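Box 3.1 — From sequence to structure: non-reducing end alpha-L-arabinofuranosidase
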Amino acid sequence: MESRHSLYHVLLLLFCGLSALCQCSATGVEANQTAVLFVNASEASARKIPDTLFGIFFEEINHAGAGGLWAELVSNRGFEAGGPNVPSNIDPWSIIGDESSVIVSTDHSSCFDRNKIALRMQVLCDHRGTNICPDGGVGIYNPGFWGMNIEQGKSYKLVLYVRSQESINVSVALTGSNGLQKLATSNIVAADVSSWTKVEILLEAKGTNPNSRLELRSTTKGVIWFDQVSLMPTDTYKGHGFRKDLFGMLKDLKPAFIRFPGGCFVEGDYLRNAFRWKETIGQWEERPGHFGDVWNYWTDDGLGHFEFLQLAEDLGARPVWVFNNGVSHHDEVDTSAILPFVQEILDGLEFARGDPTSTWGSVRAKMGHPEPFDLKYVAIGNEDCGKSKYRGNYLKFYSAIKDAYPDIRIISNCDGSSSPLDHPADLYDFHIYSSASSVFSNARHFDSTRRSGPKAFISEYAVTGNDAGKGSLLAALAEAGFLIGVEKNSEAIEMASYAPLFVNDNDRRWNPDAIVFTSSQMYGTPSYWMQHFFKESNGATLLSSSLQANPSNSLIASAITWRNSVDNNEYLRIKVVNFGTTAVTLKISISGLDQNTLESSGAIKTTLTSTNVMDENSFKEPNKVSPVKAMLEKVSESMDVVLSPRSLTSFDLLRKSISTSVDPASALIASY
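Predicted structure (token representation):
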């Protein structure tokens, strides 16, 4: 095999000499328009890519969960967002009626110990007498997270708790934003609700409005208390509470893992506002919620520790739990006092992995999941390596976790890509946010990284700043080049994920993001679509490849073989980023294949590009920058292909046909 590979290099030199277009530089074309890619497909030079290489990172930022993936339609459902003191702000709840007809306040009368705030509605008007209520009554309404998306024919489950010393007749309605369009109605009629009473109503929508609201009204004089008001669509994914369309976009990426729940969300600006897993489990009514002081909004924590583990399971992804290690942005727990924090995390691991008869495993079982979750990765903190207490605290967590769960792989916040870590770890965290040129050039960052010892977890990467906008083609191309470098260095890298994942277009705390949404719409940015080119790489076989081009700063390529689960056929995929402004004719030369291994048909060329490198997708043009597929003709072990300027291109070549019932081209298209 060595002699055959050498023959191709001889042919390369002849080609360079005859054409005077190739000077055998490493990886680039700008002035010249021709390059050569050698791919050695032999097993001897190939190696397996980790099954875990490409996944996703979920952080509660930009209302990614609250008002996003978590399908709860009521914002501030427990009236706790205004803080523990009363009177308090009930925003975004608003009052229907004026001060002569209704007075709304808050008090500490809730029946739930961990969230004592309840709403008190005093109706001053009546359906008879001198102070007649206006048509429809008075009350309160909740607009959700910038409007509730109510769709005709769908069902919505309303759950609330109510109390009053008198009999009640409360009208419930889903309406348009001004209350005029009635989409669904019902009534709560009860003679005795002197104690807190749980009410459940199924509302059937008779119309559609993406900017709806929930109304609770009365025309009867008296005082009514409300608490824990929830409205959920009944068609969430498997009934697990995840918004189906957004979940589907995650599922389509085939993520090998999901890192959660942050990010800075885990740390908190101050420890009092850090994510505490024990406060996010159990019945939703009993969860106190908390104010995320890094991204500055309240979460009811319906999307809690259990739901994140369930999300990973539903996605078929490995959960990676990031937990607080006693360090926030502004305060730290001394190592001498860290043991209670360590115990809290051990309890969290027992909740996820423990026997259903164990203390915390039994809590999980009561929540409907008696089988343990497959939690085998944890990260001790987020971006905390430079904090003074981090290393001391880290070692306490590391020792305790390894003693109790020796199979768990532990991730350090300290970068070990350039020099060895000074503490034990299975993986180390690496983050990169930078300009397009910097991210693209960092494709070679791990070329010299040690192959032994802890592996890299690139848990946050993205192009940011002016190059990125709200999600540009330029950013996606730079990130694709970086990921090709990750692929080629996967001996030293175990995992990689883009950040952030989601943004509600009404609350952009960070730009860019992979998926943009409102209550009723969504689209993927170019960076989202870029990740589709890599979703078959997990567990695939990386082939040896070398790119010969001139100059050496605009092309990068890799080659893998992967098996398509749709048709069970094996494909050879070549990915190339042309970061330059000139079209390139790429000569692909494949060695190491058995004779007649490549099929002449069934090959697909997929391209991500646009007319302007700063083009972005939008709700008006959601697919302006998205993969475009075309049949690839004249497939052979030596062939010429054209790379558009500023483009990411993949070539899927059918290597061995096993299935006869599925058209290979259709199967390839279905795989994206």
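Summary of the box: Confidence is low (pLDDT under 50) at residues 1-31.
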